[in-house]
Design brief:
Length: 150
Amino acid sequence: MLKHARHFAIKEIINGKPIANQDELRLELRKRKHIVTQATLSRDLTELGVSRVMSAEGPRYTLQGGAAEVQVLKPVVGTQVISIRANESIIVIKTLPGCASIVGEFLDIQPHAEIIGTVAGDNTLLVIPSSRTKITHVIRFLKDKLIEGK
């Protein structure tokens, strides 16, 4: 398989579920028909800016491509959020007029395994969690990132 296809698969896997080590990642890649050596995978992870961090669930890989953008947006984003509300399946973030896309970008550059995606309007941002059972956890993550600035 081509390198860019393999890189896309690596990013998709890391953004989609917690991966603790290279063996787990190689197994997930193999399921997608990408057979790689440990040396190749190690080079790929370096090229993609992937780092291994500790989370509440243990070690996991994360993409660090948006680190500079996060630092630029972090001081501003919290001042733009008006409210965070949810029902059984979706989370709605209300922002100041014209600010939903900035808040959405801030969340998108910090991938979270339990967030499938975001959709921004002018002053409303929809956050789609991976599961109904994860809504409380995702809301806590959003409040930490957007309101408390963690």
